[in-house]
Amino acid sequence: MVKPIFEEGSVDLEIIRTTRPRHAYDIANTHSFSEFEGLIVIGGDGTIHEVINGMMDREDNVIFPLGLIPGGSGNSFLTDLELLDPLKAAESIVRGRRRRIDLAKVTLSDRVLYAFNIVGWGLVADVNVRAEQFRWMGPIRYTVASLVELVRAKKRAATLMFADREIQAGFCFVLACNTMHTGKQMKMAPRATLDDGLIDLIVVKHGAGLFKMLSLFSKLYDGEYIKDPAVEYYQVKEFSLNPEVDVPLNIDGELLGATPAEVVMVPSAFEVYCDSNVNQTNSDN
């Protein structure tokens, strides 16, 4: 569908089809890009996560611009970039304009990962686990899983540290967002921008109550939920999370690694082909 756009724009392509898990990581990590201007990715947030981590882990430290064409179910990143139409995304790549994007460097006990979208703990990670049990339901499984976990009202004790603050409490969830949108176009971090060097930290402590949580859930798609007193919203350069019980984290929509975790923002870590100025702060992009 998009190949003719590149042909009309006199863009030469080498097409590689992924055939296994982490194949996109391996391509970005080991492929020689000396004869290419960039790498085009067709996929969703999971594929983009693999590519970015493969690139950031390269031994030669080569960072190449990414062209992004939607092909997944969530497409949180591409929602922020206004690149949800595959044809328009391809046209944007051909025009060649680039913009810089921050990354979150996530240091865990056994590895280092890079997140372009979210780093989530608590309810937002438990929902992923529960949704796998409801895979037969299709996309609606995430809504059902969210409701199940809200009813459970599980308390999670942890120490959250950022700037000069230390919060020891029972939490419902802690969600760190680089992008404004999460999942199926939920506006989880309405103040987030992709190039401000900050990550938006959303904190909801345990004890808000079921009806309060259901009320917040109903306001996720317009971002109005952050106005509720039960929601704490911070913008920070780094933070650390140390729970009493170590559990997996939701990193860019996948359950990867486990707590404790230290997260540090890497400003302008890479570039994407994009015409839009939406969700942008730096004037030199």
**DSSP summary: helix tally:** 8
- The topology string of helices and strands comes to HHEHEHHEEEHHEEEHEEEEE
Strand content range: 25-35%
What is Rg?
19 Å
Report the sheet with the most strands, covering strand number, pairing sense and barrel closure. 11 strands, antiparallel
Which helices and strands, and how do they pair?
Blueprint: H1 3-8, H2 23-30, E1 39-43, H3 45-56, E2 66-70, H4 76-80, H5 86-95, E3 98-107, E4 112-115, E5 118-122, H6 123-133, H7 141-152, E6 156-162, E7 165-177, E8 199-205, H8 210-217, E9 231-236, E10 238-243, E11 248-251, E12 254-258, E13 261-273
Parallel strand pairs: 1-2
Antiparallel strand pairs: 3-4, 3-13, 5-7, 5-11, 6-7, 6-10, 7-8, 8-9, 10-13, 11-12
Q: Overview of this structure, please?
A:
By secondary structure, the protein is α+β, with helices and mostly antiparallel strands. The chain has helices at residues 3-8, 23-30, 45-56, 76-80, 86-95, 123-133, 141-152, 210-217, and strands spanning 39-43, 66-70, 98-107, 112-115, 118-122, 156-162, 165-177, 199-205, 231-236, 238-243, 248-251, 254-258, 261-273. Strands 3, 4, 5, 6, 7, 8, 9, 10, 11, 12 and 13 form an eleven-stranded antiparallel β-sheet that branches. A hairpin with a 4-residue loop joins strand 3 and strand 4 (112-115). Helix 2 (23-30) packs parallel to helix 3 (45-56) and helix 6 packs across helix 7 (141-152). The protein is globular. The relative contact order is 0.19. The mean pLDDT is 91.
